[in-house]
Every structure is written in structure tokens, then in C-alpha cells.
Amino acid sequence: MTIAVRPRPALRFRGRSFMALVLAPEVPLRDWLEDLDAVSERSPGFFSGRPIIADVSSLKPSKSELKFLLAAFKMRNIRIIGLEGAAPENVEPDMPQQITGGKPAGDIDIPDAADAAAAAVDAVAPLDYQPSAEKSLMIEGSVRSGQSILHPEGDVTVLGSVASGAEIVAGGSIHIYGALRGRAIAGCTGNARARIFCRKFEAELIAIDGLYKTADDLGSKFHGQPIQVHLDGDSIILQTLD
Amino acid sequence: MAKVLVVTSGKGGVGKTTSSAALGAALAHGGDKVVVIDFDVGLRNLDLVMGAERRVVFDLINVVQGDAKLSQALIRDKRLENLSLLPASQTRDKDALTEEGVARVLSDLREKFDWIICDSPAGIERGATMAMRHADVAVVVTNPEVSSVRDSDRIIGLLDSKTEKAENGDRIEKHLLLTRYDPARAERGEMLKVDDVLEILSIPLIGIIPESEEVLRASNVGSPVTLNNPASAPGRAYFDAARRLKGETVELTIPSEKKGLLGKLFGRRAA
Q: What is the pLDDT along chain A (242 residues), one digit of tens a residue?
């Protein structure tokens, strides 16, 4: 590391994809709102903490109707993060953002009464205990120079080695059973709890959650050792696996 | 006034990367601010030859595509503070180089450096044309053998037609750098003679770099030959070439075989 004053790191923008719940009001609106209230009653907290989009393309509301609808959501503590299908002239600056380009992603089950209690517990449980739907990627051989493995959904396991000039970019942790001679970039979608493991450490660069260290920064202390890398606050910690 | 210099050849393995690093270091040694850019996207080597491979974070493609700032990607040499490197990406290909992006990067670099040396990839496709596109000066690296000379001839044609200068009706300044010259083999007629090469290519000669183990030794320790061993025959030849690039008149001698009695007895070659 140079002693010189380091410029502030560049602003980091990360993408993340969430499943949004889409509410598509239908006429008669009164009946539709009653059904909505019934769901809230059966499973309290079903609408809290979820990204919710209001799709009004089939309703085609006028400006006053749109205002009424948004007020009705507000009254029920349903926070709308985006509007889909509203005519631009009816959208005022204080209304939610206009959103386009959504892709259908299957139905979200409305919990029935039996699940209500569990759902209520779920709503307050910390994130750590939610079963993750992360998929991990297994690479049986080695990753050669110039190859770039991008897997933002979860962990990546490499049974062989990662060559100099190759890179693994994972949303979760990276496990390498051979030598790591290239780049390992873990937690790329903003996961500070991701780790990097390898049996022989000769990396060009390691990064977790956007913080990185080059081979030059790391020196030769861990060269050739089996190590794990994790984050502690804003510093990258290397430990030998013994 | 910054100069963009492209080091090109058409043929692979003639010594473009070695020459880019050696000329860059020699020019920087003379006090100029120099940046060497690796245009060989997908097969980067310049960082290895310059001993900076352990410090690469961002690369040319990141800057061209706007993912990183130029200041983040430039690697300053640890031995010469006015020598910098802009490395290539290993995991992308030449298609990632956009016309506008490269033009923007070069115009930004023109404000900061005296010399911008573009190490061209081999071939005559996108990577090579991108590297030469904005050049003011070209160094055509050629080995004294027929296939290399023919490829150099092809590249000279491209320099006169595909560069920005050529399209604006100007002529790009071209120089011939003869590398891996083996006086003993030239003597035996196993290699083209300097005059033959010059007659075919008819561009001014800027230097003759003798074939030497010193070049391989330098690239294996990650140091340009002009820094690693400035007093060696190739080191001196590159220093002279750099001075000629700057417009100085330096006498050019064709390396010849200097064999003493011992050499004749044991067949040792002069370096």
C-alpha cells in the first residue's frame, strides 16, 4: 500500500432484484377493496415490508379515481412503490414512480388462515432465519485464464483451480478446492457475509461486497496457504484454514 | 504536445510487447511522462512484462465502458514514477473496445502524458485497427524473415488507409524497428539482410535490436529490458531508438559478429 493520500473510492451502484407483489384493482372497485381487506384480516402483516406495485392498466382510472385508489391503499397501510399502466397525464409528482418493463414471475400465494400465525411470526423474524432460495453453482474442472464465471444468485464451488487471468464473480461465497491464482469476487450483490475459501492462495485479487485487495496489497504472507477470507466491518480479513 | 505512438506488426511473436515496454521505459527514463496501453484484450501480457500483474484492479475495458475512472485504472511504475500502465482485460474480447470509448480514453490521456504508447495485438482485425486508429506515430516491429516482412508490409498499408490521420488526408509517421536480429545468421545468409528489409518496406529505420537472452530474462522478471539491464546490447539499442523517436540524430550501426579467438574456438556468440 502506498502512503499517499488515497482518493475516495468511487461511488458503488449495485443492482438487486426483488420479487414485487403486483396488485391489479378491478371494477367494481368497492368489491375488490373488500377482498383486499379480507386478505389483510386473515394474515396480518402480509402487505407490510413487501415491495408492492399497483397495476392499473385494466382499470384505466382518471386522475381523481387514481387519487382515490392511492388514498384507499394508504388508509390500509399498503405502501405502493410504483405505478404500472397509468396514463402519464394523470400521474402527479407526489404519486409513486411510474414503472415499466416488469416481467411476470409467477403467482405469490395468499396465505390462508392456517398460515396466518406463521406469517405473522415470519414478518418479525430476522432475515437470517429465512430459508434462502439461493442456488449454488458447481464447476467440476478448472477455470482457465480469460474465463469469467458470473453467478449473482449464490455460491460458486470450483473443484479445480482458478487460473491467473480468470475470475469468479458470485453473489454468495466462493469455494475453490484447488489453487486460486485469478480473481475471486464474492458477495457481489451486496452480501457482506460472503466468504472466499481456497486450498492454495495465489490470488491476483480478492473482493467481498465491493471491497477489494490486490496481490500487491496482500504481500506474500499467505502465499500458497489454504485460507479463508471474510469481511470484518470495512476490512478484509485473511486466515489460514488450519 | 502529446504523441500517440502505436507499436504494431501484423505478425505475432516479433516483439511488440517487449518493444512497447522497453521504449516506454527508455522515454520515461529521459524525463518524459509516458503511459503504455495494452490493447491486447483477452490475451494481456504487457502487465507481466512490466511487472505490474499483481496490481491490476481495473483495466482498459472498464475505462472504455465507463465502469471505472482513468485514474483508478492507471498503474504507476514502482521504478520510474513518470511511467504508467493501462492494462488490458483478460476476461473480455476485442469487441468490448468501442470506437468512441477508445477515442475518449486517448483524448483524456493526451492531457496528462507526453507519450501514449499503444501496444497493438497481432493480426489485422478489430484490436489492431483500434490500437492504430488515433496514432500520430507508428513503430512497425519486424523480424528479418520473409513472413514477418510481408505482414509488416500489410500493416503499413493499413496505417496509410485505416487511421484517423490517413482518413483526414495526413500521413502517419512510420518507423521500422528490426528486432531479434541475429548477426551470425545474417552473416550466413539464413536471415534477410537489413538492406533487403528496408528495400521492401521503404520506411525509415529507427533501430536494430539484436537477438539476446537478455530480453527473455528481463520479461521473466517483469522488468523492461531498458530498466533491467540498460547496458546490455538490446537495452542500448532501445535507448538509441527512443532518442531517434524524439528526433535526435544517433548513428546507427548494424550489429555484426564480434568473435575473438576464444569465440571462434568454442563457438560462443556475442550477446
A: 445 555 666 666 666 666 677 888 888 888 888 888 887 777 766 777 777 888 888 888 888 888 888 888 888 878 888 888 888 778 887 888 877 767 666 666 665 544 444 444 444 434 444 444 558 999 999 999 999 999 999 999 999 999 999 999 999 999 999 999 999 999 999 999 999 999 999 999 999 999 999 999 999 999 999 999 999 999 999 999 98
Sequence-ordered strand ranges (E) for chain A: 21-23, 52-55, 80-84, 97-98, 137-139, 148-151, 156-158, 167-170, 174-180, 183-186, 196-201, 205-208, 211-214, 227-232, 235-240
Nearest to A236 by CA among A163, A168, A186, A177: A186
DSSP 8-state assignment for residue A131? P
Report CB contact under 8 Å: A214, B44.
no
Q: How far apart are CA B4 and CA A170, in angstroms?
A: 39
Measured CA to CA in angstroms, residue A85 lies from A32, A81, B245 at distances of: 18, 14, 64
Q: Are B171 and B200 in contact (CB under 8 A)?
A: no
Cα–Cα distance, A1 to A36 (Å, whole number): 59
Burial class (CB in 10 A: 0-12, 13-18, 19+), A83: buried
Cβ–Cβ of A214/B55 closer than 8 Å? yes
User: What's the one-letter identity of residue A116?
Assistant: A
CA distance B233 to chain A (A): 32
- Residue B91 to residue A204, Cβ atoms within 8 A: no
Residues in chain A with CB shorter than 8 Å from the CB of B56 are 204-205, 214
Give the strands of the sheet with A52-55, arranged side by side: A21-23, A52-55, A80-84, A97-98
What pTM was computed for the model? Answer: 0.69
For residue A167, the chain B residues in CB contact (below 8 A) are 91
